[in-house]
Amino acid sequence: MNDMTPITTVKDWETDQEVRWCPGCGDYAILKAVQRTLPQLGSDPANTVFVSGIGCSSRFPYYIESYGFHTIHGRAPAFATGIKLANPDLDIWLVTGDGDGLSIGGNHLMHVLRRNVNMQIMLFNNEIYGLTKGQYSPTSREGTKSPSTPLGSIDHPARPCAFALGAGARFVARGFDVSKNLPDVLKAAHAHRGAAFVEIFQNCVVYNKDVFDDFAQPKGAEDRQLWLEDGAPMLFAGGTRGITLNHETLRLEVVEVTDGDWQTAKVIVHDVTNRAIAHMLVEMPFGPFPMALGVLYDDPVPTFDDMAIADREHAVAGKEPNLARLLASGQTWTVSGTVDESAGHPARGMVSK
Amino acid sequence: MATQQVDAPQDAETPEAVVVRFAGDSGDGMQLTGGQFTLSTALAGNDLATFPDFPAEIRAPQGTLFGVSAFQINFGSRQIDTAGDAPDVLVAMNPAALKTNIAAVKPGGLVIADTGEFTKRNLEKAKYTSNPIEDGSLAKWDVLAFDISAQTVEAVKPFGLGNKDALRCKNMWTLGLALWMFGRPRKPIHDWLRAKFKGKAELAEANIAALDAGHAYGETAELSGPLHQCHLDPVPAAPGLYRTITGAEAVALGLIAGARLLRLPLFFGGYPITPASAILHHLARLKEFSVTTFQAEDEIAAICAAIGASYAGSLGVTSSSGPGIALKGEAMGLAIMTELPLVIVNSQRGGPSTGLPTKTEQSDLYQAVYGRNGDAPMPVIAARSPADVFECAIEACRIAVQYMTPVMLLTDGYIANAAEPWLVPDPEAFERMPVEFLTEKNAGDQLLPYKRDERGARPWIKPGTPGLMHRIGGIEKAVDTGHLDYSPGNHQAMTDARRDKIAGIRVRDQQVEVGNRSGKLAVVGWGSTYGPIHQAVLRARRKGMDVSHIHVRHVWPLPANLGDLLHGFDKVLVPEMNTGQFKTVLRDQFLVDAQPLTKVSGQPFQIAELEAAIATYFDEVPGNAGGEEIEPNLQQLPNPEAGHDDGTTPRDLRMMHERDN
Lengths: 353, 661
Ligand SMILES: Cc1ncc(C[n+]2csc(CCOP(=O)(O)OP(=O)(O)O)c2C)c(N)n1
Ligand code: SF4
Ligand SMILES: [Mg+2]
What we know:
The structure holds two protein chains of two kinds.
Chain A: H1 26-40, E1 48-52, E2 67-70, H2 76-86, E3 91-97, H3 98-104, H4 106-115, E4 119-125, H5 160-166, E5 171-176, H6 182-191, E6 195-201, H7 213-216, H8 221-224, E7 225-228, E8 235-236, E9 241-246, E10 251-256, H9 275-283, E11 291-298, H10 304-316, H11 323-327, E12 332-335
Parallel strand pairs in A: 1-2, 1-3, 3-4, 4-6, 5-6, 7-11
Antiparallel strand pairs in A: 5-11, 8-9, 9-10
Helix pairs in contact in A: 1-6, 2-4, 3-4, 5-9
Chain B: E1 17-25, H1 30-43, E2 47-53, E3 68-76, E4 89-92, H2 95-101, E5 110-114, H3 120-125, E6 142-146, H4 148-156, H5 163-167, H6 170-181, H7 187-196, H8 201-221, E7 240-246, H9 247-261, E8 266-270, H10 277-284, E9 291-295, H11 299-311, E10 315-320, H12 322-327, H13 329-338, E11 342-348, H14 365-370, E12 380-382, H15 386-402, E13 406-412, H16 413-417, E14 419-423, E15 471-473, H17 488-503, E16 519-526, H18 530-542, E17 547-552, E18 554-556, H19 562-567, E19 569-576, H20 581-590, E20 594-598, H21 607-615, H22 651-656
Parallel strand pairs in B: 1-4, 4-5, 5-6, 8-9, 8-10, 10-11, 11-13, 12-13, 16-17, 16-19, 19-20
Antiparallel strand pairs in B: 1-3, 2-3, 7-14, 12-18
Helix pairs in contact in B: 1-6, 4-8, 6-8, 7-8, 9-10, 9-15, 11-13, 18-21
Bound molecules: thiamine diphosphate, iron/sulfur cluster and magnesium ion.
């Protein structure tokens, strides 16, 4: 998918900084996946910027040998927007966490998606505040016991992909830290021109250990993971089960598929541009259904940065940036008197240097 | 200010300055009247200052109190620094205009009212129970009440306009009368009208006829009524091209000029708030000057995007007013930590919280100087007047880039809205300061992103530059390398380096505006108190008081010689539109016994108030024992609540919501 001629190797993307995540943290696997993906994208470290907020996940830029900006809690999308508007040629990867992106920074995440600023947004969802030592987060499941919720949390969790789609995202995908498919998901995100949102389930081994095991553990993964592919039927469990749409209830259902005859079972063919189905996929509850993974939705529209450039070109067309004329615009009058003959401008010499 | 200082004795017969306020319904064209009267004042060589209360584009219901639009001009034969303590003349085009403005007028001042609009319905709309023109309630003032509407309709009759169009010429009739009062030629206005109504000759001629009729009326009315002519001599002004400029315009122009002198594209991130929005509006129309404007989702995003743009090699600028500046605090800290250039413009308004959105105050000085977590030093520059903002903005851009630091530029609601003449500068006359980005490793084969130059500034490195990849962020940086470093010695070293860099910023030595470098009393001001302090000190000196005026532009770091200067005076008085913030800074920095004079009514200081305060230090001056209490004029300026928001919000929408928050 979208491979380019590599001008770098994995090694070129490694920094000399000591990585400070806890041993076994899912962030390591994501870091590796990204470092493996970048050469395949033909990316140039000098032209690549990793921008992050605050959290364990947001330490990410320190470990990638490119330009990196570790900003403040929740605001990375705003910084990234400014960077992109100032230099649209830069390739921007945004790294955020479930707390960073959906709690303190929910507003900015909504707006960067709605505006469709061209960048890849990776939200590391470990369903916990890792850096601040394990408080429950906006994505923690109901009943999560944490230092701040000793009896279990009572909030209803946010669903990152549903949030993204609701905010107007034109690319929504899902993966998890140790998945071998993660690089492909990242490549698809990179290929999408516009804000590409990727939720990456990430194992916080210290404060929320193995909460994704129900679908992520290798054993029986086939039965619990639905890897979506554009133009392919939504099949899982080795092709023995599929997802169909009940035309009466207008709800998704799991159907048995016999002898690979998914057509008869009316299994849906994934169309990444079908926004209605995307809405159903992001809301599809795990348990009765498998976890939908891969590219859930991908339907590009003009990006904010491209539109800003066009808007500027339109605004400046036929206009000359003449500062002297601009300063002298509006209601003017002349006070006559002796003007220094050598001066081309009546005001020359009157202003402080 | 544009004009030279004139320190002439005051003559009771011919006033040296006159304050005129034009007030009418927002559909009456008062801003146009004011604008043209301003131009004629400028052409007559008088100095001036104006305070417009911008009308909205869509009109409020006619005749209502909140539909009033006003324009105040102070002009004279001496330097004018303020929009005036109180109007000498009020032109009230309807009952609502009279109601909302009359209290401001000087006792004995002249009130001109259009009786044609004082109908029962309009009186009710203005919440008058009886007609103020007839019930004696205006006895304090000279009242000239007559039917301007009828006079105008009569004057434009030959042009066959409908009644509505005919009445629209009322403002020109009024302008004609005002031109007569101050002995001004009509020709420039004739020319302007012909140009404005090009291709609509009958409208041009009708307006000219109305103007002439108003002028002629003055001549006949003078014989009997309170109306008389008044002549003010021109003020000697430096020759050159002048224009009027508001503070908000000057911020926009100054930022553009600053960015161009630095050869940088300008990125402006903003979020609407009164009175700062006008800067965003102005810049949004000037994209041809390499300007990108970004209306963010909130003030935090606005500053963060601006910092992002600076990181990527633009000059990032953000602007807001008190509450929005408070939201930006954390991001300012990041800009200080990552040592990126940034200009933050704070158009101060009354606080705390939402406070007084449309009123002026200087109460964000602590916020500007001290208002961040950690030891987070940041330069602060305060502009004194609309015209002064231009240079201050250039200075802010220069410091931001040369010292790799965020800089705060303070203006306020008064400066943002007020207009004054400005000797248009030649952009060529400013020193160019092209920026050099780092393009190669700066320590042999090593890159040191936090290696400091002789100013203490680190290099500016644009992402996209080959070979200079590095990481920055808000965690404490190791000296030189910029790697994460929490060690105690390093934090001490970096905190000191950040402090020293800001403390070492080169700012011009403090000058004395008026008076001497030592003496009995120094009146020390900053920001928009410049005008009234300047005039008050001039007047006090004319009466023989040994008082000097010191005006500080660089609020942080303070000019190096300021402490010595202040110690040369027996007393130091610091008038401020807050509860004494700069006074505290001066005491802290120089151990000087600075005394506060504070005012937080939302109205600027009157010259008379300051004169009285100064006088209390000079009981020994003959005829001056005690000083006197001055009643503050609570409507010294037209009330911007009547429709202020620089004309871009539909009036009917603003009626439904709490405005201007
Ligand atoms: C303004 C502000 N508030 C609070 C914090 C403390 N803080 C740091 S990280 C964090 C939560 C991080 O959670 P998440 O985004 O899920 O990242 P994770 O550590 O789980 O990767 C908080 C609350 C902060 N740094 N700044
Ligand atoms: S606290 Fe959790 S998320 Fe943070 S580094 Fe440790 S394991 Fe990873
Ligand atoms: Mg988390």
